[in-house]
Amino acid sequence: MAAIDDSADRPGGAAPTAGPPPALEELFQRHHERVFHAAYRVTGNPDDAEDVLQTVFVRLLRRGEDLEVASATAGSYLHRAAVNAAVDLLRSRSRSGAVALDAVGEVLADPGQPGPERRRRDREMADDLRRALARLTPDTAEIFALRYFEGYANKEIAGLLGKSQTAIAVTLHRVRSRLQKELADHRGGN
Question: What domains does the chain contain, in order, with CATH numbers?
Answer without folding.
Answer: 20-93 (1.10.1740.10), 97-190 (1.10.10.10)
